[in-house]
């Protein structure tokens, strides 16, 4: 019975073309069923990528992110709602618990709607700050769509984001311009390494509240590139949260819309950007998987050639100090629907730490070979001249990539008594070795002399 | 991207050329003044700023100075109040950006004051001068204005400590660590070792020569072997064998191989030794020794 079931499960898995690495159950929280049409292309794109979408209103009685204490969905998209309260099923704590169980969340904000209090406090918890008042909007008098926002300048046309650092992979690159209508800007706290900007506002943009009576902006929420249109958070357990400042960015209307930027007719590329954004958030990209991890005593080329057993024991529990060790690890990256070899960027490296309390060695791993769906990274080093309990540790945390933290504990022992160099190999000992031989020969000669020597005539015999 | 690159210069060009811009934002009567602390109002250098070309010299701001930038914003030729009037500083090395907002009244006259305490620490510690741009823009169809107007030279008083917050944690490749091994134990130069080794070994022939000069001989060997051949051969042999066992222990044997052999040889030495030494005693009692 069980084999039949697993066979069926396999058949079902095979039927779906592409799947997120983290599961396919997607919950879209949408208050107004009529609004569903506005997001239909996004939802179709998602289901064509293998997601099983459930659209629920926050007011639905049976709505819950959990069932029997486990996640009921793998991913959640929260679209703006009219009401400020989301109800007891969608509190900030519920969202955080959902992420603690490795669920992924996209939160879409809109300046036309008040941000729900639960979302506000959740974002605050994560050190993502949004304007507290309803209606704050990001405007830019330089990069706006003069077709749809000739006067208000609140539909921004922005190029695809560049990599945030030269050593970080860019999962959101693309060609064209992204239309960002009526966005709620976010600022990010500086302390946390877990939050990263995805799409920044241009340097001339600022966020202000149109309800302010003043003719000129006096106290904007934030200005320039400190404003983020889209920001992302990846927790220690690799759960992902993306804050999309403009929910309209996800709507059909802007997926491939004609727009005008400074007199030039352009076409928006929101569909491409949203596809990249959702596939990153829902773990279709940027997911690392560690395969086989191998370490062994490297006995050198000469020894390998001479023995039929070329490689010594794999992953031994014990090493000696000052021993040559080879280390290999297989790492793959999930790309939409398959595992592919992973390569870090040029300025980045996967590092191996050989540590007891603190690292004694921290070495960059280099790709030594490659299989169909993984890269094998390796490094050779010599165990330190300190015995104790050590760890082989790979702690690879980078923005936009899931974390790898692997430890293998080994003992590093001291030299055994018969592993030291022999005394005659130490030139300083020759004097002492000579002394011993002189004593040995002298002793044997003395015994012979004492046993067999006859008194000489010259010697005076003492009378007792 | 290509599109963006192509329109940026044209944008700058259009904003720079005020003559042609019937409805583009710009500014007039702009002055930048740096006022030292304690100096009277109006004291200190005053420079006129041009919307078309940046100031050729650096504007230096000491740690106790205040910078005052005054301007009148114009839409086309007419003084007007824009929605956005920023003085934007950008650190060329880190990319840190900060905008300061002009207080502009209805007639377009505006000013901004800057002192060291207003600036983020990245600007104060930057090695390069900080470019300052003026951004003027508003709703509607008027072309916005953005252009660099001068370079900041932030002269920081090295005696005044600057509170630079600790760099926050960012996930990136860390510096490699290679364990530094302790030095291997070293021997003294071989020549010195050899001199002393030769001296030690030379003691043995010296001992033999002294013995020979004192009349050492083996004349009783025949007598001893004649009296107690078996015990003498065994006794002397077992003493040699014991040294041999020690040699094997030194080179290859372990203690568990050594001990039984040493016991066996020791037993032989004990038994044969008592006989052989009795023979020696007999010789002594016979007055031969």
Automatic annotation (TrEMBL), chain A:
The chain crosses the membrane at residues 429-452. It is found in: Endoplasmic reticulum membrane; Membrane. GO terms for molecular function: transferase activity. GO terms for biological process: protein N-linked glycosylation via asparagine. Subunit of the oligosaccharyl transferase (OST) complex that catalyzes the initial transfer of a defined glycan (Glc(3)Man(9)GlcNAc(2) in eukaryotes) from the lipid carrier dolichol-pyrophosphate to an asparagine residue within an Asn-X-Ser/Thr consensus motif in nascent polypeptide chains, the first step in protein N-glycosylation. N-glycosylation occurs cotranslationally and the complex associates with the Sec61 complex at the channel-forming translocon complex that mediates protein translocation across the endoplasmic reticulum (ER). It comes from the Eukaryota. The lineage of its organism: Eukaryota, Fungi, Dikarya, Ascomycota, Pezizomycotina. It is a single-pass type I membrane protein. Its main location: endoplasmic reticulum. Component of the oligosaccharyltransferase (OST) complex. Residues 25-281 form the OST48 N-terminal domain. One of its GO terms (cellular component) is oligosaccharyltransferase complex. Belongs to the DDOST 48 kDa subunit family. Pathway: Protein modification; protein glycosylation. Residues 1-18 form the signal peptide. Keywords: Endoplasmic reticulum, Membrane, Signal, Transferase, Transmembrane, Transmembrane helix. Residues 313-453 form the OST48 middle domain. This is Dolichyl-diphosphooligosaccharide--protein glycosyltransferase subunit WBP1.
UniProtKB/TrEMBL annotation, chain B:
Its main location: endoplasmic reticulum. GO terms for cellular component: oligosaccharyltransferase complex. Keywords: Endoplasmic reticulum, Membrane, Signal, Transmembrane, Transmembrane helix. Residues 181-284 form the Ribophorin II C-terminal domain. Residues 1-21 form the signal peptide. It is found in: Endoplasmic reticulum membrane. It is a multi-pass membrane protein. The chain crosses the membrane at residues 191-216, 228-249. GO terms for biological process: protein N-linked glycosylation. Pfam families: Ribophorin_II_C (PF25147). This is Ribophorin II C-terminal domain-containing protein. It comes from Bimuria novae-zelandiae CBS 107.79. The lineage of its organism: Eukaryota, Fungi, Dikarya, Ascomycota, Pezizomycotina.
């Amino acid at each position: 019975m069980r084999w039949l079931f697993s066979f069926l499960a396999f058949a079902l898995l095979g039927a779906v073309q592409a799947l997120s690495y983290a599961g396919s159950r997607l919950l879209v929280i949408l208050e107004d069923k009529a609004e569903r049409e506005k997001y239909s292309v996004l939802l179709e794109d998602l289901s064509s990528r293998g997601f099983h979408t459930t659209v629920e209103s926050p007011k639905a009685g049976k709505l819950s992110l959990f069932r029997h204490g486990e996640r009921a969905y793998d991913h959640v998209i929260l679209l703006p709602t009219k009401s400020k309260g989301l109800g007891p099923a969608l509190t900030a704590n519920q969202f955080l618990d959902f992420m603690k169980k490795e669920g992924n969340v996209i939160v879409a904000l809109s300046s036309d709607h008040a941000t729900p209090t639960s979302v506000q406090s959740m974002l605050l918890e994560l050190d993502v700050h949004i304007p507290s008042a309803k209606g704050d909007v990001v405007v830019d008098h330089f990069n706006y769509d003069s077709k749809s926002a000739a006067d208000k300048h609140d539909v921004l046309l922005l190029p695809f984001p560049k990599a945030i650092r030269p050593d970080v992979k860019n999962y959101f690159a693309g060609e064209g311009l992204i239309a960002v209508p009526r966005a709620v800007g976010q600022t990010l706290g500086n302390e946390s390494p877990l939050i990263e900007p995805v799409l920044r506002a241009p340097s001339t943009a600022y966020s202000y509240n149109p309800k302010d009576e003043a003719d000129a902006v006096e106290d904007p929420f934030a200005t320039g590139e400190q404003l983020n249109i889209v920001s992302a958070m990846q927790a220690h357990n690799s759960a992902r949260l993306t804050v999309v400042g403009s929910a309209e960015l996800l709507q059909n209307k802007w997926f491939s819309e004609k727009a005008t930027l400074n007199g030039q007719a352009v076409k928006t590329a929101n569909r491409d950007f949203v596809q990249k954004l959702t596939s990153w958030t829902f773990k279709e990209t940027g997911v690392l998987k560690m395969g086989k991890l191998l370490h062994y005593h490297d006995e050198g080329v000469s020894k390998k050639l001479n023995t039929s057993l070329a490689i010594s024991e794999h992953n031994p529990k014990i090493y000696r100090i000052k021993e040559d060790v080879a280390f290999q690890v297989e790492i793959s990256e999930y790309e939409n629907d398959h595992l592919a070899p992973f390569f870090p960027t040029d300025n980045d490296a996967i590092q191996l730490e050989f540590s007891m309390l603190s690292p004694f060695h921290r070495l960059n791993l280099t790709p030594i070979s490659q299989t169909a769906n993984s890269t094998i990274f390796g490094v050779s080093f010599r165990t330190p001249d300190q015995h104790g309990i050590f760890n082989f540790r790979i702690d690879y945390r980078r923005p936009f990539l899931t974390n790898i933290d692997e430890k293998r504990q080994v003992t590093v022992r001291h030299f055994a008594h018969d592993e030291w160099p022999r005394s005659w190999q130490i030139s300083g000992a020759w004097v002492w070795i000579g002394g011993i031989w002189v004593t040995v020969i002298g002793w044997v000669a003395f015994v012979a002399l004492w046993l067999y020597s006859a008194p000489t005539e010259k010697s005076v015999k003492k009378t007792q | 991207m290509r599109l963006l690159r192509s329109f940026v210069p044209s944008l700058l060009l259009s904003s720079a050329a005020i003559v042609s811009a019937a409805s583009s934002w710009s500014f007039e009567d702009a002055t930048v003044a740096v006022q030292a602390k304690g100096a009277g109002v109006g004291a200190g250098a005053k420079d006129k700023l041009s919307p078309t070309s940046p100031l050729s010299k650096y504007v230096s701001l000491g740690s106790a100075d205040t910078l005052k930038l005054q301007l009148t914003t114009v839409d086309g030729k007419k003084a007007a109040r824009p929605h956005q009037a920023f003085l934007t500083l950008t650190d060329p090395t880190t990319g840190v950006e900060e905008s300061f907002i002009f207080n502009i009244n209805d007639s377009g006259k505006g000013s901004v004051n800057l002192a060291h305490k207003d600036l983020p620490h990245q600007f104060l510690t930057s090695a390069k001068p900080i470019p300052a741009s003026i951004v003027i823009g508003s709703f509607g169809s008027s072309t916005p204005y953005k252009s660099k107007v001068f370079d900041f030279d932030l002269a920081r008083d090295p005696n005044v400590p600057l509170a630079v917050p600790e760099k926050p944690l960012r996930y990136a490749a860390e510096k490699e660590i290679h364990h530094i091994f302790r030095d291997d134990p070293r021997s003294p130069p071989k020549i010195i070792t050899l001199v002393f080794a030769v001296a030690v070994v030379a003691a043995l022939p010296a001992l033999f020569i002294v013995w020979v000069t004192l009349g050492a001989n083996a004349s009783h060997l025949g007598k001893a072997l004649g009296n107690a051949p078996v015990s003498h051969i065994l006794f002397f042999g077992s003493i040699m064998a014991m040294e041999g066992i020690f040699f094997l222990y030194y080179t290859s044997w372990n203690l568990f191989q050594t001990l039984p052999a040493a016991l066996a040889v020791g037993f032989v030495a004990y038994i044969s030794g008592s006989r052989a030494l009795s023979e020696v005693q007999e010789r002594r009692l016979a007055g031969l020794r």
